[in-house]
Amino acid sequence: MAADEPRRTTGLSRFRGPWRVVVAEASMLPSIAPGDWLLVDPTVTRWPRRGSVVVVREPVSGELAIKRVAGRRGDQVPFADGYLILAEDEAWLLADADEERTRAAGFGPPIDSRTYGPVPVEQLVGRVWFRYAPLRRVGRIRRADDATR
Amino acid sequence: MSRLSRWLAPTTVVRAHCDLPCGVYDPEQARIEAESVFRLQEKYQGNEDPVYRARAIHIKEERAELVKHHLDVLWHDYFKPEHLEAVPNLHDLFWNANKAASKAKASVDPADGKALLSAIDEIDAAWKKTGGPEKTRVAGRPG
């Protein structure tokens, strides 16, 4: 990771958290389910590696959302009928669930970068690293293998 | 909830955001706004007062924007790839209707409003052909 990579400029306020979050809605199934209690590292200042799960302040709605980093600066991502190249401070965030899965859970299609485009690092809130409830699924939140995406 | 789990429970909610469509769709919604556009074009033609005319244009453009919004929702949320079998020219219908809406938005000629209405009627036929009235209205479309 290059030292000159763009960081978010939150200063010490990032230590205010959130450190723990609860998940609503279904777009991260099957890896993360609605109702899961997660630990977040809010001190991160740069986009974590591809495959990591992050909390972001969602563009357009401004709400806190959970998504997986699918692309980083310089990556080509399919967009509209062509592709675009992510800028220095941008990431491409995707849901884990496809539309079939969110429909089965009673929702419409997942909302992610395919809807709102690339997300600048200023919107980053934290990296999700651990699930502490429900008990039978306690454990680290693993990075998805790049090869599967 | 026990005291321990109350203490452990997160207070911040993060959304694994999905769309939550209500599942109610009807081209009538766009048509009513388009009828307003048409009527306002007629009213514009029937009145010489500049203030009246300015207001008519303003309201007409607002209504035309709503037409486009309702058409887009139908196109993106109601119609699915499988509907293309029943209505192969579906995308053309919406393209034409949106073009007609743009034209009516910029025009004070009632003929453009009329053209928009017939473009929406074609979409209405496609909606009916794919079972829209039974599938999306709460008790079928009121007769």
Low-pLDDT stretches of chain A: none
Percent helix of chain A, as a range, is under 10%
**Alpha-carbon distance between the termini of chain B?**
51 Å
Main β-sheet of chain B, in a few words?
Answer: none
Percent range for β-strand residues of chain A: 25-35%
- Radius of gyration of chain B, whole Å: 21 Å
Total strands of chain A: the figure is 10
Give the terminus-to-terminus CA distance of chain A: 21 Å
Query: Structural class of the helix and strand makeup of chain B?
Result: mainly alpha
Greatest interface (CB-CB under 8 A), with counts per chain: A-B, 36 and 16 residues
Oligomerization status of the protein chains: heterodimer
Instruction: Note the run of SSEs of chain A as H and E.
Output: EEEEEEEHHEEE
Biggest sheet features of chain A: 8 strands, antiparallel
Q: State which percent range the strand residues of chain B make up.
A: under 5%
| Uncertain stretches of 5 or more adjacent residues of chain B | none
- Sketch the topology of chain B as an H/E string, one letter per element: HEHHHHHH
